[in-house]
Every structure is written in structure tokens, then in C-alpha cells.
# Entry
Amino acid sequence: MKTQMAAVRPLVAVERSVRIAVAGNPNSGKSTLINSLAGSRLHVGNWPGVTVEKKEAAFERRGERIALVDLPGTYSLSPYTEEEVIARDYLVQERPDVIINVVDVTNLERNLYLTVQLLELEIPIVVALNIFDEAEKKGYRIDVPAMEQALGVRIVPTVATKGTGLDALLEAATEAAGNPSRHRPRRLHYGGDIEAAAEALMAEVLRRSPGLAEKYPERWMAFKLLEGDRCVIEAAGLPGIETMTARAAGHLHSAHDGDIESLMADARYARAAGLAREILTKPDIRKIELTEKIDRIALNRFLGIPLFLAAMWLVFKLTFDVSAPFADWLDAVTAGPFTRWTRVLVGLVRGPDWLISLVTDGVIAGVGSVLVFVPVIFAMMFFITFLEGSGYMARAAFVMDRAMHSMGLHGKSFIPMLLGFGCNVPAIYATRTLENPRDKALTALLIPLMSCGARLPVYVLFVGAFFSAHSGTVLWSLYVMGIVLAVLMGILFKRTLFRGESPMFIMELPPYRMPSGRSLMIHTWEKGKHFLLKAGTYILAVSVLVWFLLNLPWGVEHKKDSYMGTVGQAVAPVFKPLGFGTWEAASSLIAGVIAKEIVVGTMGEIYVPEKKETPAGPAPSLSADLREVGTSFVEAGQKAFTNVFSTAGIASISEKGESPPERESLRAVMAKTYTPLSAYAFMTFVLLYMPCIVAAAAFKHEFGTWKWFGVAFVYQTILAWGMAFIIYQGGKFFGIGG
Amino acid sequence: MGFVDIVLAGLIVGGAVYLLYRSLWKKKGYCHGCDSSG
# Structure
């Protein structure tokens, strides 16, 4: 597996290079620590399992090149989960110069279990006692010198979110890397029987294959062979290794029914627990902490799911309230001054008329129609990042556990699904955190039903045109529809493609934390920039191609008769029973297969008026336009502020009666072309129809086969058509919104 | 539409197709900006 390079600053005159692996339990703050040290932007969240693979951030310090490798969070170094394998392979095979072991000091004993295993690798270690401030608040006292003495490694208290202790940590790590012999960690004794068996086994193994000592740390390899670790046994490649192990550990085998792995785990736990008892003093009177108080409500078996739904509703309402005025502002600027002045500029370079049309009616109308919704996407990502950072997302997975069990999955599968609200592609990759291949495939199949940010522009366009008074609720209903259908489809798949028992769910619930402003900004930007990059790459490319398809054969008078119009007309009857059987809707949906935002981009191009009306009176000057852009931006800010504190919903979208000067806004066109019922059916179809091409590639990449994408394509297309049909025909039958 | 127009249009379409191929297919679903992706 490749390492992702997250951030590399320019390096000059580097004297020495130091590779530091950052290892620790899930949610102990490894990525935050690296981000603080290296100024990088690795994804962090207050929930376990954020880092799925190892990532690297490099920087220069006092002439040294420091490369920090962020390993996935693991509780042990057993080869059972993808994260454990990635972390272990890196540590054993790549042998970093030093390991920074990030220990969540509020869960010391459990974190020390991993520390004990890291010590076995005999690589210099520095322990970061992270989240030290919270431990102090709880009244914990930690005897750092005693811990250093017991483990034989440097211990540095840190608060990664505030940057506290990080200079000392880095200093200790580079010092340890420079003098590995002086910083060799202490060998913790696991008891006479185990140690004797390991020694005897190693002596025999090295006698038969001395080269193995170069490949693996001897003592660690002995323990792994004793445990019967298949990966190490295969890598060692020694014939008769089982016999050798049995001979060396005959006494252990007979005393423990051959379950040496459990024996080893007990020995390590005993060391971790003993150490924690020696160095940690907790206050006698235990306060009921805020996290527990909140969890009594948030995890209540009756209130948990309603609260989760309410939290989602609030996210969508706030998203709309904050972003809609800015979306309106961008819409007016793109359709007005920007289009006008681009036309002037292309005219100045004497571009032919078709080129002017390609730029304004193709690129600006197509890409611009999508970019208008960037404020909405960023607002949404901000609130999702807030929920992730606060620790609530882990609770969401927990409260969904029962619903997930009904479809043969567990709450852990809900985490990749929650990631799918941002973008389905990383969510499909995140299924690798699931141990069972059956769970992975089933979860991946359900992820496209989670409404990703790319579908948001479509919803906002239609919600703004038809449901402005209840925008948050309508948007929320679409997301909830996705979740409910995922549960129902999961149950169906469980009874057909994926028979089997659902495994037990054990998940760590992190304490609630207030995410820092810096972290919120960085991660909102990291999530949102994906959409800006898409706009500059394939949305741009598709806009250009769509413009040609709408204008070919060359000189075609009506778009309806163009190549795109002809294909749209051929497909449109399929959508007639759904309430949007027009060639414009059909063409947009076909183009949206590439990425869902392209539905809006294509509509933007299709609905550009074929005959341009010249605005009455002289065009405003550039300075007047710039003044107007600035003034309207300030007004948008004021409206956003008012909206947040107003219970009446969105002021800006509902006021949107006037058209921008250069072309009618897409929303106004939609209001004339659709009915509220057909608009809702259209949004439902966009929510559910086949995954985009990038998600298809992710399916292929992750599973190595097109099979699961094929299943997703077929079931989603049927589901989308069926649901849109039920909504439109049902609504007509009952006389709703037609 | 003259010869120059046809060449220019061909170059633009070729560029768009290449951009699409590069961003959608060549990178095998790599998600820009999604740093938890594969």
C-alpha cells in the first residue's frame, strides 16, 4: 500500500533525515499531533478510525528533514484488521528511526497495552502522554519519572490540540533517533515460562535461518511464532516451524490448551494494568462527567434516534440559513457582471461568436451553475466537521447499531456511511476498516444511498424554487429517505446476497470535545476544496462537451434538435411517469452520471435562452459593477446573520423574484418548468440513481471487481425510478403538490 | 465555420476529453481533497 504524502515543505540544505512513526490507539490524537507539528492537514475527527492508511507529513527542522508517518489507530499489533496490518507492517518492515507512541492519558491502561507491544519491536520510542489537560481536569496524577523508569523511554506530556509539549516531544524524538543504542526500550518480562520458550524457539530458528535476525526483531518474532501468527510464520518461510514451536513451547501448550495467543495477551495486559496502577493516581470521589450526562440522553434507547434525526435537521437548517444568501449573491454575480465582462473580454481578443457562446453559455453557465452552490457545500461541510470533532458522530453510529443489526451489519458500518454524507468516494474506501469482506461489500453497496455533497446543488436549486419556507425540512427529508432506504435495502440484501450473522459491535465512545476554530476551518476547507477541484476539472470538461453536444450538428436552430436534445428526447418517455419526462431533464440526468453536480451544470447550459434579449439602457460600468458586487456581498452577510437567528426560514431565497440582468436565474426557470411534486420526485431520483463514475472507479479499486458496482447500478436505478414513481403518482392521486 | 474554427474546436474538445479521462479514469477514482481516501 502506498503512503500518501500529505504536506512537504521546501527542503534546503538537509543534513540528516529522521523518520518518525506516530502510533497509538484510535482517537488518541495522532493526526492532530502531526498536524500541529508539521503544519499539515491530515483528516482528524473525534471518532475512532479516521486514519485508514498511513500518511506522511514532512518538514525541516534545524537542518534535519523530519518525516512523520501517521499510522492508523490500533489497539494491538495483531494481524486481524486492515489498520493493524498496515501499522505493523510499516513498523516491522520499514523500521522507522523512532516511534512516537501517542497515549490517551484519560484511558491509560488500554493505551499502554499497545505501548507494551511497541516496546517488543526494540525501536527507540518516545511516549506522548496526550490529552494531558483533560486528565489534569479530572484530577488524575501521573508519575512521569516512574513511568520513564519502568519503560526505559522518554515520556512527554502533551496537549496536541493546543500544541503544548510538542517541541519537547520532537526534541526527545530526534535525540532518540540520533542515539538509538542509548534509547533502546526496556524489555518487559512476561514471566519465566514465556521468556524461556521464546528464547529456546529463537535459538533454534536462528540456527536454521540466521538471516531472519536481520529481517525481524528477534524477541518480537519469537512471540509471534509462539502465538501462531500466520503472517510471520509465512514470512519466515521455515519448513517445520510448527514442530519447532511445539518443541520450544511444549510446557506452555500443555498448560494452556495450546492457546498461547491468549496467554501472551494476558501477559501483556498484566504488564499494562500493573504499570497503570503504579503510575496513575485517580481522585477518590468520582464526579459524573459532562460526557456521561450528555450520553444519558444522547444514547437513550428511546431518545437516541430522534435526537440524531433532530441534530441532522438542525444541520440542514443552519446550512441553508447561513449559505443561501451567499449562494444568491454568487448567482447574481455569475449571471450578471461576470458573464457581461467575460463577453467583453472574449470580444476584445476578437474571438468568433461561437467561442464567446462556448465561454459564456457553456463554461460560465455550466461551471457557474455549480459554483453558485459552493457556499452551501462549505456550510454543510462545516457543520459535519463540527459534529465529527465534537464526538457526536461516534454516538450516531452507536444509536444506529440496532437498526444496522436488522440488516446484518453493526454500528461500525454506519461510520463509512456517515462519511458518505461528504463524498461517497472516501466512504467506499473507508469500508476497509471493516474486518469482514461480507460487511465491506454490503456497506459499500449502501453508501451511495447516503446523499453526498455533490447532490446538494440539485436539492438547493429545487428547494429554493419550490420549498423556500420549509427548506431545512425538505432537505432533511431527502437525507432521511436515503438512510431509511439504506436500512430497508440492507435487510433485503441480508436475506438474498449476504446471508449470515451480524457480528457484535464494540465501539469506543470518545468524550465530547469542543473542536478548535482552527481545526474546524482547516477540515471544512479540506472537505470543501474537493468540490472546487471538481469544478476546475471534470465539471469544466463536461460543460465544454455539453455545449458542443447542444450545438451540433453545427448551426442547429433549436437545442431540442441537437445531438444532446435528440438523445434526451429518446430517453424522456422513461421519466414521463415520474413527472419530468422532458428532454432537458433526461439529458441532465444522463450527464449527471459523471458527477451529480453536473445535473445542475447541464441544466444551466440547456436553459440559457436561445435568443438573447438585449438589456434595456446602457450596460453598467466596471466600477459600478464592482461596487454592486461588494455591496451585495455585505448584504448577503447581513442576511445570513439574520437568518440564523430567525425562525421564519430563509429570507433571501424566498425574496428571489427578480432576475439577474444578463440571464434569468436557473431557479426562476425551474419554478416555471416543474411543479413542487415533480421537483420532489426529481430530487428523489437524483438522490437514488446510480453512483457517479468516480464512485464506480472507487468500487473497482477497492474490491478489484466490477461486480459490486454492477449490483449498485442495477438496484439503485430500479429503486430511484420506483421511488420517484410512487412519490409523483401517489402525490397526484392524493392531490398533493401537483 | 472556417478551417481555423474547426481546428480550434477540435483542440478544445480534445482537451476536454483528455481532462475528463485524466481526472476520472486515470486516477482510478482518487478523490482530490478527500484525505481519508485511498
